[in-house]
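Chapter summary example.
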Amino acid sequence: MHLKGIYPIVPTPFLDQGEIDYSSIERLVEFMAQKKVHGLAILGALGEGHKLTGQERTEVIAKYRALLPKGMGLVVGVRAPATDPAMEMVHNARDLGADAILLGPHTVQKDAPLIEYYQQVSDAAQIPCIIHDYPAVTGITMSVGLISRIFESSPNIGYIKLEDPPTGTKMQALSKTAGAGLKVFGALGGMYALEELELGAVGVMTGFVYAELLVQLFEMAQNRQWKPAADLFYDFLPLNRWEFQPGIGVSLRKQVLKRLGVFSTAKVRHPGPDADPTTLSQLFRIVEHLRAKGYPLAL
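The structure predicted for these 299 residues follows.
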């Protein structure tokens, strides 16, 4: 499968006591499908994948696979502290119907073990794998040279979700070392999406709730309509900035989805901070500003 377009990283909904909220997953899939996104990415950092048991992961992946409309891709996040558990997780995701794996690194900051890990786990996956380059969350920094060697280590590694700013600079360096074969997805809340698409990113994979704006931006970029794309992007960039705040971004997005009637609760599994009411009201002030400018955003 060739991945391209807008793939929202979606949060995992929980009930008040912490159980998986499968009814909210059903509403979430319908909500995102209406925005014409190209697929969904589940169980990543925003999806609190590391807080789920193995059985819960199996049930959640199976639920999304059963619900996704034909033509929408399913990317499953995998991040483990060692190679063997990661291999087990990718086998399970593939068998449940994942189209691709968003593969985070293990916890050892050494080049050789990281190359071996990505080679072994991606070979075991037998489906496309996306390098997750997000040192702020994984604790692992991957240089341009290391990423290029990882890319060369397995035919199943063809993509990177690049979240190591400055992303534009790193994209340009990767294009010189890894070449055009390594496809880049923008991320980081979509805060650099316009510039990443200008530099050749194949899409954006991030947790922005108002994904219809990213869909519009992507379509403009595909048609090389850079002036209207810039006008659109500069309008909604403050919303990206506010929604993506480190630490409380998961909670903010769940609060938005609850307010929109998609999630039953905004429960974040422990440990995970909740966004305060003032910060949430400031976010919706930005939404109201965009609505006043004519953007048909739900509120």
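To summarize the output: The CA atoms of residues 18 and 269 lie 7 Å apart.
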